[in-house]
Amino acid sequence: MVCAVPGIHDGILLSGHSHEPAHQHMLPSMRNGSSLGLWAMVMLMSNCRAASPEADLPPQPSSQSSPSAPMADAGSCWVGVLRRNRSFDDILPAHHCLEDKKLWEGASHRIGRRNVFGVGGGADSLDGKLVLVRGTVGASLADALTLKGPCPAEGSASRQFRADWMADEGGYVTTRARLQTIPYLRASSVEPFPVLQVSNPTLENRRKEHWRGPVPHVPASATVHNPTGSVWNLELLLHYEGGPGKPMPKYERRSVRVEPGQETTVAIDSVIRDPAHPDSERAYWILEDVELAGAVGDCQALTSSRL
Question: Which of 45, 119, 155, 226 counts the highest number of beta carbons within 10 A?
Answer without folding.
Answer: 119
